[in-house]
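Hey, resending since the last one bounced:
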Amino acid sequence: MEQAKMDRISELTRISRERELTNAERSERERLRAEYLEDWRKGAKQTLENTYVIGPDGIKRKLSKK
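The C-alpha cells again:
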C-alpha cells in the first residue's frame, strides 16, 4: 500500500478523534482500511508460503496448510 494512503488513514483517524466524520470521510476510511488489510493478508500469506521449519531430525520442511 502506498504511503500516501496510509497517511490518509492516519489523518482520518486523527480527525475522528476531534470531530464526527462525514459519511464521505467514513466510507473513504473504511475503503482504505479494507485495502490495507487485503495487502497485509496477502503479504502474510506469501511469508508463510515461503517459510520452512527444520525438524528435530534436521530435515527442512515447508509449513503445511491448515
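The first helix runs from residue 3 to 18.

Sorry for the duplicate.
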